[in-house]
Design a protein that fits this description.
Layout lengths: L2 E6 L4 E7 L4 H6 L6 E7 H17 L3 E7 L8 H13 L7 E6 L1 H13 L5 E6 L2 H7 L4 E4 L8 E4 L4 E5 L8 H18 L1 H9 L4 H18 L14 H10 L6 H16 L8 H11 L10 H8 L9 E9 L2 E8 H11 L1
Parallel strand pairs: 2-9, 3-4, 3-5, 5-6, 6-9
Antiparallel strand pairs: 1-2, 7-8, 10-11
Bound molecules: nicotinamide-adenine-dinucleotide and zinc ion.
């Protein structure tokens, strides 16, 4: 079964098409006349799906130039971006040509960033091949690269013109990479959709329907708050502590695992105020069911401090996303002192 989700933002409307065996060339040709395509992919994904993608694009008249970089977060930086700019300039890529990102969130974020800035902005298409990229990073237009000091510090809002999610590509994903995406999927259930959460509890689901539902939620939130000024913050449920876990582990603990731990800590911290006292346990069970960690070795004080390390000024507040019940969260401003005692309750 194929699904189409319409994303409507202030800057661009586009479709996310989710299905099995999607013909990339045919679908891109439906929105763009033949042109030069810069196909960006990491070495692993290119090895698996690069040739097939090139062939499909060429079949529909696109002139393809493939740029392949070493896989992993360590490539999501300005050095790779600069190499890609030079590659494009050497191939004579002009403003009416197209970027296509084939891969996970690293490829999508990097390609989106280069597309946003090369020749002051070019169109790009996302072909997500990880579960996380399909339900999260490929939709919403946040693009970025990392600096040595921290992740995603240089970036831009730049929406794609089309997202094609062929879930057949998930068959080659390593288990841990799939689990990373699962943490974000559980997050969508926690923030907006009790039924989705219950589907995960049952454990038997159709991956295309799940991707569709998660993308619908992301599209709804981004449609209301494209530039992250208010509602979009709810997508950060579990992420404030999650980012601290990632940093404290020196990025050894992957993002999804860190978010899983973060969601557990903020939910447990709220438990005394929640009507549903089973909530933390239900969350723990679901995450464990999908091979995600639910605790870490770091102290509450370290987690609380690391999470706000850039905002330690006295009197400043942070926005924390707190659960109310499964399927609902609220955004609450907290002082540093409140935040510290809150994390202490959750660890
Ligand atoms: N822009 C956003 O809104 C947003 C949201 C969430 C995360 N992100 C970013 O996304 C990145 C994480 O994304 P990710 O988890 O997809 O990481 P990733 O792109 O590094 O992919 C993870 C690993 O899986 C491999 N891989 C990808 N697809 C595969 C496939 N089909 N079969 C086999 N192997 C495959 C990759 O080569 C890589 O080694 C982070 O940089 C994060 O900051 C961005
Ligand atoms: Zn995330």
């Amino acid at each position: 079964m194929e699904y189409i989700v319409e994303v409507k933002t202030g800057t661009k409307d586009y479709q996310v098409i989710i299905g099995n065996g999607i013909h990339y060339g045919e679908r891109i040709a439906a929105v763009r006349k033949p042109c030069k395509v810069v196909l960006v992919s990491d070495d692993i994904v290119y090895g698996l799906y690069g040739e097939k993608t090139e062939k499909e694009l060429k079949e529909y008249g696109f002139d393809v130039f493939s740029y392949v970089f070493p896989n992993g977060e360590k490539s999501k930086n300005l050095t790779t971006a600069a190499e890609l700019y030079e590659f494009c300039a050497q191939k004579g890529i002009s403003g009416s040509d197209l970027f296509v990102a084939l891969g996970g969130g690293v490829t999508g974020d990097l390609t989106g960033f280069v597309a946003a800035t090369y020749l002051r902005g070019m169109e790009f298409v996302q072909l997500p091949t990880t579960f996380l990229a399909a339900i999260d990073s490929s939709v919403g237009g946040k693009t970025a690269v990392d600096l040595k000091t921290g992740k995603n510090l240089v970036g831009s809002f730049h929406q794609p013109v089309l997202v094609l999610c062929d879930t057949d590509t998930f068959s080659t994903l390593p288990k841990e990479v799939f689990a990373d995406g699962m943490a974000e999927a559980v997050k969508y259930g926690m923030i907006k959709d009790k039924e989705l959460f219950e589907t995960f509890e049952k454990g038997d689901f159709d991956i295309n329907r799940i991707c569709k539902r998660c993308v619908e939620i992301k599209a709804e939130v981004v449609g209301e708050d494209e530039f992250d000024k208010g509602l979009r913050k709810i997508l950060n449920f579990g992420h404030t502590v999650g980012h601290a876990v990632e940093k404290l582990s020196n990025y050894e603990i992957p993002h999804g695992s860190a978010v899983a731990i973060g969601m557990v800590i903020v939910t447990r911290a709220m438990e005394s105020e929640l009507e549903d006292k089973t909530m933390t346990n239900r969350l723990l069970k679901v995450l464990e069911q999908y091979n995600l960690p639910v605790s870490c070795e770091y102290s509450a004080n370290d987690l609380a401090l690391q999470a706000v390390s850039d905002k330690k000024r006295a009197g400043s507040t942070i926005s924390v996303i707190l659960p109310e019940c499964i399927g609902e969260v609220k955004i609450v401003p907290m002082t540093m002192e409140e935040w510290n005692s809150y994390v202490n309750k959750g660890v």
